[in-house]
């Protein structure tokens, strides 16, 4: 059985990627929780720490937001080099040059609200089942229905779950 690694309250995991999602910078907290050495991460795709329990739809939505010059909030289950998992509350933003062209992406992750993790785990499990039957289009429809049902945007739902 996998062991969970709980982030310390003051943990602040940060990283930067290029336009294709390859890691160009990671801080000490990133290295600590991911259990990688810096040289093992620089130049590697950020999904090196993606846990298989994460629905593909969440990352599709994330890329849609940041490529459209918008920030996004998400709860993400990561796995470290030893196979342990850890949840984060992530904020991902595009980085711009002086002409407002996207030159990379910046992510800050912190300890998630445990109640939110409990709730989102169930939603993600349902989403993975939907993806198996209807692909990412089904996952996107599921998120759209959630937004419609609550009358809130995806970011608003996620942010409020963290603050609750």
Please tag this protein with its features:
5 helices, 23% strand, globular, single chain, 5-stranded antiparallel beta sheet, 164 residues, alpha+beta
Describe the structure.
Strands 2-1-5-4-3 form a 5-stranded antiparallel beta sheet. Helices cover 43% and strands 23% of the residues. The chain is of the alpha+beta class and 164 residues long. It contains 5 helices and 5 strands. It is globular, with a radius of gyration of 16 Å. It has helices at residues 28-34, 38-41, 56-67, 114-150, 154-163, and strands spanning 13-17, 23-26, 72-79, 85-96, 102-110. The model has no long low-confidence stretch (mean pLDDT 96).
What's the gyration radius in Å? 16 Å
Which spans of ≥5 residues are poorly predicted at pLDDT below 50? none
Quaternary assembly: single chain
Structural class given helices, strands, pairing? alpha+beta
Sequence of strands across the biggest β-sheet: 2-1-5-4-3
Give the DSSP E fraction (strand runs of 2 or more residues).
15-25%
**How do the helices and strands follow one another from N- to C-terminus?**
EEHHHEEEHH
Topology readout:
Elements: E1 13-17, E2 23-26, H1 28-34, H2 38-41, H3 56-67, E3 72-79, E4 85-96, E5 102-110, H4 114-150, H5 154-163
Antiparallel strand pairs: 1-2, 1-5, 3-4, 4-5
Short note summarizing the structure:
It is built from five helices and five strands, in the order E-E-H-H-H-E-E-E-H-H. It has 164 residues and is of the alpha+beta class.
């Amino acid at each position: 059985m996998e062991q969970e690694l709980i982030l310390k309250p003051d943990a602040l995991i940060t990283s930067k990627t290029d336009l294709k999602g390859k890691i160009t910078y990671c801080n000490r907290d990133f290295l600590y929780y991911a259990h990688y050495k810096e040289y093992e991460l620089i130049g590697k795709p950020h999904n090196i720490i993606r846990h298989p329990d994460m629905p593909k739809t969440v990352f599709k939505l994330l890329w849609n937001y940041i490529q459209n010059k918008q920030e996004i909030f998400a709860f993400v289950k990561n796995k470290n080099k030893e196979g342990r998992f850890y949840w984060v509350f992530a904020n991902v933003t595009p980085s711009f040059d002086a002409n407002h062209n996207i030159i990379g992406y910046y992510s800050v992750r912190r300890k998630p609200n445990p109640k939110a993790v409990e709730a989102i785990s169930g939603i993600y499990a349902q989403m993975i089942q939907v993806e198996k039957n209807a692909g990412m289009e089904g996952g996107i429809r599921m998120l759209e229905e959630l937004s419609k049902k609550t009358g809130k945007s995806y970011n608003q739902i996620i942010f409020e779950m963290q603050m609750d």
